[in-house]
Amino acid sequence: MKKMKVSIQDVESVAHQSQLILSEDEKAKVAQDLTRILEYADKLSELNTDDVEPTVQVLPIVDIFREDEICPSMDRETILKNAPHATDDSFIVPKIVE
Amino acid sequence: MELYKLTIHEANELLRKKEISARQLTESVLERIDQVEDKIDAFNTITAEKALEEAEAIDKMIAQGEELSSLAGIPMAIKDNICTLDVKTTCSSNMLKDFTPPYNATAVERLKDKNAVLIGKVNMDEFAMGSSTENSAFKHTKNPWNTESVPGGSSGGSAASVAADQAFFSLGSDTGGSIRQPASFCGLVGLKPTYGRVSRYGLVALASSLDVVGPITKDVTDCALVLNAIAGHDIRDVTSSDSPVDDYTIALKDDVKDLKIGIPKGLLDRELDNEVKASIDRAIELYEGLGAKIVDIELPHAQYALAVYYIIACAEASSSMARYDGIRYGYRSEDYETLEELYKKTRSEAFGPEVKRRIMLGNFVIGADYYEDYYLKALKVRTLIREDFVEAFKKVDIMLSPTSPTSAFKIGEKCDPMAMYLSDTYTVPVNLSGLPAISIPCGFDSNGLPMGLQLIGDLFNEKQILQAAYTFEQNTDYHIKKPIL
User: Fold this and answer.
1) Distance between CA atoms of B106 and B213, rounded to whole angstroms?
2) What are the residue ranges of helices labelled H in B66-179?
3) What distance in Å separates the CA atoms of residue B231 and residue B210, rounded to the nearest whole number?
4) B171 strand-pairing partners
């Protein structure tokens, strides 16, 4: 693994992916923080893991099935109660198609 | 009598004997909150009226001769990332500052079924990202043992409220140590159950392969009582386990004879405060004197756990946090024209710096260029860390380590994110392996701050660590001491 430093350009790209806007000062700070954290994480490259299986979760769970039964779901009014912007029966969002 | 000072089991006995009423118990705690909350700042929401109503309903049940559960009428504080029906659940974030869940988390539901009384919601690091509760968007919670020190985190409000006798117990969540470390900093008992032992339904997700809900209590008996109520399978959480649930009070026995306790030597040689080290050495001697067998063990990959943890936890968090888009619930920016602008402004205005940092680190390590070197690598090293524990548990019954390398640090002392992450050294390997672990008080340092001892058990063997913890408690008096406020 090559030693890497997170550039301002990297930060801009990952900020966009994360749907975040950063000020110029924030970008510099994030580049610095991420570089330090990743340099620390580089110690993992000391280990040979060619024949090691990854662990994504610890329990021996594969697929969980249940009967497909009809049960009551939350009513529309309850769901819309927490919406920042809604009408009586729907969420309001900016227009996304021309 | 200062009822708020009691433990759950002491209060329960007085309720059963009808020497006190549930209303008196709740009133006592509410008065205590009035007295000390401006010094501690533990609560985001206090539900005084509802709590008194609930307490009165329980008094009616008592008057009608109904059988009381061990938690009936007991005032509890719930961490503000665990959903409570019709009571704000903010995650101490501006993103959710007005969010009122239309349902209870399963763990809360089960406590309510036992007639525990919700007294309020407690402060935390924003979205549980932090180790000091300083990342709360609202306020800094103080450690009741020294109000210039942090209570730990992320369940800092949980620990501070219980240590200050503002609640009899609290539910916290533990992704990398967030129950155990604050319990240790505040001189309390904190249990991180086995992954899947307690339903995560209604727990606001941080890192879904690591998150667990668990109790923070004044003693080990109380811990067993709360675990009894919340443990067990839940159809609404597919990762909750259907393995049988023990009656954990059976573990409350003063006996560690022939118990094999493993000491991970390599871990103890690392940067560790001298006074914490001395308290751990005394604990080992005590256990040995009580007939336990002390065995040195190796966890050769535990030194990589912190790096693995931050890669995996941030990768999962970046995905958990993607849901905050300002549309269905939570904050929405006032000023946008396009959908992308709505997303970006909403998230940038409402998330704090640590949340942004972790989302970006997470997206970075799962990005195409770095996936193999960081994320996949971390998943593989996670396997090695787990396997170390599997090997060790062939030789020992439980393991013992410090909970945290230091006692509570000062508010504002650790402004560098890496320095803060290092305080999770002893707790994160346990989450990566899914194991249960408990932190119990094991002494006080020269500044009068509590120190904690961590006991780690094998998967679903909460009973064994509870018994060892109970035995330690029976032979020490650290858990009885209270902070002066």
Assistant:
1) 10
2) 106-113, 156-163
3) 17
4) B78, B215
Provide the whole-model pTM: 0.97
Residues 26-45 of A with CB under 8 A from B: 26, 30, 33-34, 36-38, 40-41, 43-45
Pair of tokens at residue B164: 């200050």
B143, β-bridge pairs: B146
The first and second tokens of residue B107, run together, are 């763990």
* C-alpha pair distances (Å), B431 with each of B6, B91, B281, B426: 31, 21, 24, 10
Segment holding B297, helix H or strand E:
strand B293-297
Contacts of B239 in chain A (CB under 8 A): 57, 59, 61
Whether B164 and B40 have beta carbons less than 8 Å apart is answered as: yes
B121 beta partners: B45, B78
Cα four-point dihedral sign B102, B108, B114, B120: negative
Amino acid at site B82: I
Instruction: Name the residue with tokens 């549309």.
Output: B327
Residue written as token pair 């209590």: B217
Burial of B150 (0-12, 13-18, 19+ CB in 10 A): buried
DSSP-based three-state secondary structure for A29: helix
B400-448 pLDDT per residue, tens: 999 999 999 999 998 787 778 888 999 999 999 999 999 999 999 999 9
Tell me the three state secondary structure of residue B215: strand
Residue B71 buriedness (CB in 10 A; 0-12 / 13-18 / 19+): buried
Amino acid (one-letter) located at A42: D
- Cα–chain center distance at B354: 19
State how far residue B120 is from chain A, nearest Cα, in angstroms: 20
Distance CA B142, CA B145 (A): 9
CA B142 to chain centre: 16
Sign of CA dihedral B268, B271, B274, B276: negative
- Residue of B238, B363, B382 with shortest CB distance to A18: B363
Residues of B classed as catalytic:
79, 154, 178
Q: Using one digit for the tens of pLDDT, what is the confidence trace for B1-30?
A: 799 999 999 999 999 999 999 999 999 999
